[in-house]
């Protein structure tokens, strides 16, 4: 197939409009919607929390501050125009334990320097506690240097909020002539909401009280799996890998990191100490599974050594903060890692339960499982269950209310729930089981959109969330709770959505904080369980091509259980579609895929890439996303999330602001397919408007930018390989 790419991108002009007369009321010219730009200058010994950008101190919200460790540091502010500035106002954040700015110096662009010492005043009910500094001049840019802090209980903090008050009518300066944000849209997409309603859910057997194993296999299921892997040709590689891992773990000398320090994950989530903890945990889980399936008692003894060792040490590890400055933990430095570290040991505890004495079980329960779950929840989960008993007596059987509008649920909460329900199951603690079920119901309600996409907006996190959710549902099933059928089988939506989102070659576009994903690797092993519960023929292909695995590896705590080749339907052609929750519009045919990212920003994992266009044709991705870097890598914030790294428009050489766009038109008329989106909030006073028309062998891309003010405009395209075909 020949594939041409025609782009008309730079038909953009500044529309003339006079500035309106000054308004007597004061406006905060520092707000992003009024075109202010903020940068931060730091000396080498001052550190900023990467998740709190400098713009947070100028957004009108004393709760979303820029967190810094140390002083001095300097905010550099550039306003929309040279504006009459009456005064600057400063407020501390509403975090009482943090440090707050004390001595400041303001330097205006005419050389004027003003000094002020701020009192320690905290906002009440998130209302800024302003302290003013008179200006009375026309200003385009200025600097605010914070020389010192009021001390706090914690060693970080800074300016909570800054306002720049002007009498200028900024709304008039930024008006978009002729733009109607309420203009009607024409969006014609096929319905797939019935896809999550199978005729029957095929549930696994329930574990009897006190029976082990009870998490992902009952004793009868374990017996059946042993028979399968001993006779199936497809199981040979997984079986041999299990034996090899068992011997490797058995031969490993157990050495625990010293609780006296240093802590793990201080500067990198995968530092040597984190890897040491993680390896011991994975070995414990793998040894437990090896004992259960191979029957060699030496594996149980080695697993016991690790789990009992941690049971004696866990409480000694101090709570500490690491590279994730927003979280803390004990063994690791963030609770996601702590939960992922505990889960394999819970699998081990379940598998070797019969080999443990009552005294050993109690030591593991009270020295490891319960205190670790308390760390993960930041409170004793049994106390959380007791609070729910008082506030909502029917919570154990009730359905949580669905949120009024889409929300972003962190994938890590699914791992918290998996650790909690596994802990509850192996300890026979109904409170823990019920709490995890309740929280999982809330995640299924709020985390999954009606289009089946996980709200964080990345295929990587969709698959990551499903790893934990699948295991939660399987443990719940063996505890007698059907979450596979919850809310008309709501969990089936994200399993189905993956197929509608995938490229023709079975890979998936890595939008936002996600790399391009494969569907024939370890991530697809969860489809064993989706197929067993729903018997959807569409899942057979992934069950047949996904690896078979019995060992425990990162994010994979379950064995693959299907070893017979499943009958596959003829190739299914998925239609053009729109993922409304996330705002992805996709035009497609059997060989081509064109995606426009028009919708919401994407929460903490969103990139500044509104109306980004991703193209797959001629057997590969032609225009895709930038390479992913780990969050602690400066290149993540300096490149990966920025507009210039994507296939969209840049105005004045700056990245877009976080904003939501709108789909104006979407229609698939067979040979001709069309979609059009707009974004009016990516840049102050700028309208971005993109139309993509797919005609079978060509893609016509019409990108228009409009503003009442003059700007520099540019459109970027990131191509892989050579550009060929018609233009």
Commentary on this structure:
The chain has 727 residues and is an alpha+beta fold. Among the domains are: 4-11 and 179-190 and 575-715, Beta-galactosidase, Chain A, domain 5 (Distorted Sandwich), CATH 2.70.98.70; 22-173, Galactose-binding domain-like (Jelly Rolls), CATH 2.60.120; 210-378, Glycosyltransferase. It is 29% helix and 20% strand. Strands 1, 2, 15, 22, 23, 24 and 25 form a 7-stranded mixed beta sheet that branches. A hairpin with a 2-residue loop joins strand 22 (662-669) and strand 23 (672-679). Helix 5 (297-313) crosses helix 7 (358-377), helix 7 (358-377) runs antiparallel to helix 9 (412-427) and helix 9 packs antiparallel against helix 10 (430-447). The chain is globular.
């Amino acid at each position: 197939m020949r594939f041409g790419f025609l782009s008309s991108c730079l038909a953009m002009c500044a529309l003339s409009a006079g500035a309106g007369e000054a308004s007597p009321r004061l406006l905060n010219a520092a707000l992003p919607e009024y075109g202010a730009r903020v940068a931060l200058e730091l000396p080498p010994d001052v550190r900023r929390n990467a998740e709190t950008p400098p713009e947070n101190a100028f957004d009108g919200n004393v709760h979303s501050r820029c967190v810094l460790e140390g002083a001095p540091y300097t905010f550099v502010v550039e306003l929309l125009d040279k504006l009459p500035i009456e005064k600057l106002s400063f407020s501390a954040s509403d975090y009482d334990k943090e440090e707050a700015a004390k001595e400041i110096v303001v330097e205006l662009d005419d050389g004027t320097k003003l000094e002020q010492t701020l009192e320690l005043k905290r906002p009440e009910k998130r209302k800024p506690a302003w302290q003013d500094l008179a200006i009375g001049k026309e200003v385009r840019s200025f600097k605010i240097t914070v020389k010192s802090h009021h001390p706090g209980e914690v060693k970080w903090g800074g300016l909570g909020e800054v306002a720049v008050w002007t009498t200028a009518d900024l709304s008039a300066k930024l008006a978009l002539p002729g733009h109607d944000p309420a203009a009607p849209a024409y969006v014609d997409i096929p319905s797939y909401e019935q896809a999550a309603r199978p005729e029957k859910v095929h549930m696994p057997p329930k574990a009897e009280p006190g029976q082990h194993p009870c998490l992902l296999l009952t004793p009868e299921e374990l017996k059946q799996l042993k028979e399968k892997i001993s006779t199936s040709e497809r199981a040979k590689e997984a079986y041999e890998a299990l034996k090899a891992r068992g011997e490797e773990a058995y031969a490993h000398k157990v050495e625990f990191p010293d609780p006296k320090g240093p802590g793990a994950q201080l500067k990198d989530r995968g530092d040597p100490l984190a890897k040491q903890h993680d390896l011991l945990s994975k070995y414990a889980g793998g040894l437990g599974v090896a004992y259960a399936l191979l029957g060699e008692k030496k594996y149980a003894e080695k697993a016991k050594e690790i789990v009992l060792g941690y049971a004696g040490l866990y409480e000694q590890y101090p709570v500490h903060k690491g590279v994730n400055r927003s979280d803390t933990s004990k063994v690791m430095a963030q609770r996601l890692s702590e939960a992922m570290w505990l889960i394999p040991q819970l699998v081990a505890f379940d598998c070797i339960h019969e080999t443990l004495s009552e005294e050993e079980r109690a030591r593991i329960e009270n020295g490891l499982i319960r205190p670790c779950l308390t760390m993960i929840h930041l409170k004793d989960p049994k106390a959380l269950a007791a609070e729910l008993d008082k506030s909502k007596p029917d919570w154990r059987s009730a359905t949580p209310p669905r949120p009024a509008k889409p929300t972003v649920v962190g994938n890590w909460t699914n791992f918290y729930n998996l650790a909690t329900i596994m802990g509850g199951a192996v300890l026979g603690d109904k409170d823990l089981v019920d709490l995890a079920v309740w929280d999982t119901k809330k995640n299924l309600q709020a985390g999954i959109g009606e289009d089946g996409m996980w709200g964080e907006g990345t295929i990587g996190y969709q698959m990551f969330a499903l790893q934990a959710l699948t295991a939660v549902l399987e443990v719940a099933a063996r505890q007698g709770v059907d979450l596979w059928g919850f809310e008309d089988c709501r969990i089936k939506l994200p399993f189905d959505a993956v197929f509608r989102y995938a490229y023709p070659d079975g890979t998936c576009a890595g939008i936002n904080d996600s790399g391009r994903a494969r569907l024939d690797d370890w991530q697809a092993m969860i489809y064993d369980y989706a197929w067993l519960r729903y018997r959807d023929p569409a899942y057979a292909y992934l069950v047949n091509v996904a690896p078979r695995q019995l060992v425990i590896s990162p994010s994979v705590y379950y064995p693959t259980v299907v070893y017979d080749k499943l009958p596959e339907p003829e190739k299914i052609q998925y239609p053009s579609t729109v993922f409304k929750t996330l705002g992805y519009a996709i035009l497609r045919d059997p060989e081509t895929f064109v995606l426009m990212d028009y919708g919401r920003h994407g929460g903490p994992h969103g990139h500044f890439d509104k109306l980004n266009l991703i193209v797959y044709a001629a057997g590969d991705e032609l225009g895709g996303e930038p390479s992913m870097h780990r969050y602690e890598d400066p290149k993540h914030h300096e490149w990966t999330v920025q507009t210039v790294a994507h296939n969209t428009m840049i105005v004045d050489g700056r990245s877009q602001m976080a904003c939501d766009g709108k789909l104006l038109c979407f229609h698939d008329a067979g040979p001709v397919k069309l979609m059009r989106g707009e974004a009016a909030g990516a840049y102050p006073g700028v309208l971005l408007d993109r139309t993509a028309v797919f005609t079978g062998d060509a893609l016509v891309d019409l990108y228009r930018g409009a503003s009442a003010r003059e700007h520099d405009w540019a459109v970027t395209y990131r191509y892989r390989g050579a550009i060929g075909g018609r233009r």
